[in-house]
Amino acid sequence: MADKDFFSLKDRSFSLYLLLAMVVLIVIVIGLVAVNDYYNTKNMFERNSQHLQRQTEQDIIATVKMTDASYTLYDNSLNDLMRRGFDPVLAEYERSGRIPSRMNLTDVKYDLGEQFDVYIINESGVIEFTTFEPELGLDFRAYPEFYVYLTKIRNAEGFYPDRIVDEQMGNGTARKYAYMPTPDHRFLLELGLAKTSFPGQRLSLQYKKAIDRIASANPYIDRVRIFNVEGELTDNSSEIIDDSTRKTLEAVVKQRGDITISVPESGLSVRYLFIDLKSEQYGSDLSRIVEITYNEAMLEKASGGHGQFHLLVAILALIIGFFAAFFLSRYLSKPIAGIVRDVDRISDGDLDWKISPTHVAEFQGMEQSINTMVLSLKTALRDVQDEKSFQQEMINHLPVAVFVKNSDDGKYIFWNTTSEQMFDRLATNVIGKTAREVFPGTMASVIEKEDLEAISSRVHTSNKKISNTLFGERIIHLVKVLISDSSGTPRYILGMAEDLTQQTASLKLDLLYSITRSDILDQLSVIMNSLERAQLKTTEDSMQAFFDNTIGSVESIRNQIGFIRALQDLGIVSPKWQHTATSFEHAITLLPVNRIDIRAEVDDFELYADPLLPRVFYKLLENSLRHGGRQLTEIRLTAHISEGILRLIYTDNGIGIPIDQKQKIFDFRQGSGTGMGLFLVREILGFTSITITEIGTPGKGVRFEIVVPPGKFRLNG
Predict the structure, then answer these.
(1) Domain 203-300 class, CATH top level
(2) 399-499 under CATH 3.30.70.240, yes or no
(3) Which of 208, 580, 668, 679 is deepest in the core (most CB within 10 A)?
(4) Could you report the per-residue pLDDT of 115-161, keeping only the tens digit for each?
C-alpha cells in the first residue's frame, strides 16, 4: 500500500512535479541531441561518401572523354589522305561503266598502297566486292543502326570519314575507314586504312591505368572494369562475362544512360556509367561503359562505431542532468499556488480581482505584470466594443451596399442600410435567413453560384443588372470576398455592391462622342484635302474623282450623325439582343467609299451586347482601312461554336500587327492615328463579359478573336 502511494502523483508537492518535468525534459533533450548528432554524423558520412563517389565518377568520365578527344584529333588528321584515296576508286568505277564486277580492284589497291583495302557495298548493305577477302559478303544489316547510317550516306553526296575501329573479320586489325557514295547512288565505296604506325591496342583507349589511379583514391571501391558498346572488355582481357552482366550492359546501351544495381546480401553496389562518345560525324560508336563496384559494408561499419560513442556520451549526460534537476527544482516550488488560484478567478471573468502579494522578487514581478495585463485587457475590451459599435454604424451608412453571410449555411448576419435600398429588402427580413428564403428562385440560384465561386477562388467580382421597385433597372458592380479565421478556416462571405448605372451611361456617352468627333474630324480632313487638290486639277475626270471622294466622306459623316441620333432615341445604357450580321452591315454604312471586299459569314447569331455593338465592328473595319496597307483587298467576319462558347473571327489580308503591339493596341489613345484606337472596342464588349484578343501573324493580316461566353449568344431558328 505504501508503494502504491509513493508512485501516485495525487496531492504531491509542486517541487516533485517540477523535478519530474525537468527529468523528463532532460531525457528528451539529451535523447534528441544524441539521436540528432548520430544521424547528422551518419548523414555526413553518407554525404562524403556520395560526394567522393560523384567526384570519382566525374574524374573517370573526364579522363575517358579527354583521351577520346586526343584520338579524335589523330583520326581527323587522316581524313585528307582518305579523301584523296577515293579518286582512283571513282575513276575505276567510271571506267568500268559503273559495273563493279568489271572493276580491277587489285590495280586500284596497288595504286593506293598495301596499307589500303577497297570495299564496294551494295544497296542491301552487303560487301559485294573487296580486296580484303575475309570481309567479303559481310552483311551490315546485322548492325541495324550502322546499316541505317550507311544507307543514309549512299543516298547522300560527299566524303564521310569514320573512326579507327577493329576489323569485323580477319585478325581484328585496327583500321581507319571512310565512305563515299557512287555518283548513281547504287553502291557505297569504302576504304580501309591499316597503318603499321597506329598506336598499339589503339581502340582499347588505354584508360585502365588512369582509371585505376582515380579509383585507388576512393576506399569504398572494390573493382573497376571498362566495356565497349558490344559488351566486351576494352583491355583485351580473356575474362568471361556472366549473363547477368551482359544483360545489364545491353540495358545500359539501349537507354544510353547510367544504371545502379544493389546487392544487399554481399554489401555491394555496382554502378554502370555510360560515357557517350558517339558523334553524328561518324558511324562507329566508341562509347564506353565503366563498371564500378562499391563496398557499402565499409561505410556501415564506420558509422556504427561512431554510434556507440554517441550512446556512451548520452548516458553520461543523463546522469549529470538528473542530479542538476534535483537541486534546481528545490528553488522553484514556493508561492505559485496562490497565483494560480487568483489567475483562475480572473480567467472566470472577474477582471476586478487582483493577484495576492508575495514576498519573492520574481513572483512580485509576475504579480505586477498580471495585474497590468488584466487592466489592459479591460481597457482593450471596452475599446473593442466601442470600435465595433462605431464601425458597424459607419458601415451601416456607407453609400455602398455591404452584407455578410456565413460560408457554411449561407445565412446573412449583416445587412446595411444601402443594401436595404439597393435590393429592396429590410435588414429585419434578411438577417438569419438564406438567399432561398429572401430572393426569388432564379435570383437565389445566381447568388448561390456566386457564393460557390467566392469560396473556391476566394474572390468573385461581376457586373450585373437588378430590378428596383423605386429606381427601376440598375447596373451594379458586385464583389464577394471569402473571410477566414486565424486558423485559415473559411467563416464568412463579405459582399459589397456599388450602383454603376449613371457612371456606365456617362462613360458610354463620353466614349461615343469622343470617337464620333474624332471620326468626323478625320472625314472633314479628307474633304479639305480633296477640295485643295481639286483646285490644282485641269481635267474634268480628275476633278470628278476628287469630288467622288468628297461625297463619300460626306455620306460617312451623315451616317455617323444618324447613328448617334438612333442611339439617343433607343438609349445606350442597357444591353440587348442584337443580330450580328445586321450590326456588321450597319458598321459598313459608316465607312467612306472604298473598294475592299467586306463580308460577314456568321449565320443567324444574336449577341446580348451593348447597343454600341455596330460601333465595335466599325472600329475594326476603320482600323483595317487605316492600317491595312496597299495589300488589303478583303475583310471577313466568321463565327463558330466550340465547347459552348461562340467565337467571332475578324480577319483581313493587310500587313497585320507587330507582335510587340498586340496588347498595346487596346490601350487608351494607342495607335498611329487620332481617336482612341481599339480601346473603345474592348470597353464596349467588356460591358457584357465579351473579350477580344489579336492573334494574327504579322505580315499576313490581322485576326481578332471575339469570345462570347454562354448565355450571351443565341441562334435564331
Answers:
(1) alpha beta
(2) no
(3) 580
(4) 899 999 999 999 999 998 888 988 989 888 889 989 999 999 999 99
